[in-house]
Amino acid sequence: MRPHLGASAPNPALAPRGSGFVTTSVRVGTAPTTLSTPRIAGWAKRYALRLSISDTATVALSIAASHLLVLGANNLPIGAAGAMDKVMTQLPLSLGIAVVWILALRLMDTRGARVIGAGTTEYKRVVDASVATFAVFLVAAFFLDLDVSRVFATVTFALGTVAVVGSRWAWRQWLLAKRRSGQYSSRVVLIGSEQSVTSTALELSRNSAFGYHVVGVGLSDGPDSGLLGNTGLPVIGGIDDVPSLLDSYGADTVIATNSDHLPAERVREISWGLDPQRHQLMIAPSIADVAGARVHLRPVAGLPLIHVETPQYEGPQRVAKRIFDIVGSGLILLGLLPLFFVLSVLIKRADGGPVFYTQDRVGRDGENFRILKFRSMYTDADARRAELVAAVGIGRGLFKMADDPRITPVGKVLRKYSLDELPQLINVFRGDMSLVGPRPALPEEVSDYNSKERRRLVVTPGMSGLWQVSGRSNLAWEDGIRLDLYYVENWSMTGDLIILWRTAKTVLFPDGAY
User: Fold this and answer.
1) Which of 302, 374, 376, 433 would suit a FRET pair with 217, their CA atoms being 20 to 30 Å apart?
2) GO MF annotations for this entry (predicted)?
């Protein structure tokens, strides 16, 4: 059932985590009124101020903590004779580092409305600002011949970077909570054809992370009043009426969707009617499931060309991923050996059956392998599968039941916390699987794949992935495939680390596991 997007309830709008919906802020053509960068919306201004205060306090506390750690390492408690003299000697340098650091966070636009709230750009810019500050410090120390403790400098920048990133993460959780209640979001009017506006609205409604709240639409090929189909969104007027109606709906953003009924010339004319100090125009191009890092806007002879980088599956990144898999799985296996022993005893004592369960799965390039799991079902589970399928029915994909009678009491606990999947670390170490990747498919699934779905097989399947951290068994099979394909097209080491972090949260606070 499609979600209802009516204006009667808060409707945050944005691409889902991992959807790849792309919006590009552009300046369209030349006109009597130039469309410049809009004034920061009220919510963004307030939030940026909070971040500024938080960053200043975090940097100051990190520098102070570094002094304490260095003094402690030198066996000089803060009250000891000479301790404060050392601190006061370094005070001008500490103040200089703090000022440059805070200025770098400002100049690198780490608090910009377009980077806060979702994605990794905000965190990357924070790290870049910290690295730039460290570089300035090194240059100043060299040319000014400063007498500085290398231990103090290293501890300060390492601790400060982690602390600022951590505080930004905490503020993001606060912001997301506000956005889920409809606050701290841009108010958006979508324009374009009925079909393109509807699909864009539904896509934007999947997640509130980026903070776009759709308040109305303007159609190029439909009525200028009423509601838009089953979305419940109000049609506020014709496309030409939208600029003059934005203030009536409290909107600050216009998103032009891809449509044959909305040519570039018309979009440019609409941009002329926008107040550059209060409104912004964004374009939703007809590409989806592409990560922002792969998309680059390149103006050529007045044309805003969008360059989409081709995903790379070979070379240094793949080698780095394999090394990470070997080291990571090896260390985790060593650390979990006691847990493996305990779980093996519990499974064996439950019914005397085998500890492990193996099954054929399809890996990279369509090669089959045997996946390992702790056995969570009774030994006759496979024989009873046909009976259950006939009773409850099955669509495409894996057969799963919320209350599967074949699962043992021990197996229920194993599945709830994903402990049954730990032996797959052996598959990762051997190279059959990766720590992160698409879900390993069954041979009978692959035999039904169309050409698009077979794209899942160009990378190594993983123990965890976007599917597993986005709802697991609660997801429809089609949504899981879409998330896996997004991963295939946009994978990166940074993305893998984020998925592993989310995996830890999912295991500790399980939802959708059965």
Assistant:
1) 302
2) phosphotransferase activity, for other substituted phosphate groups
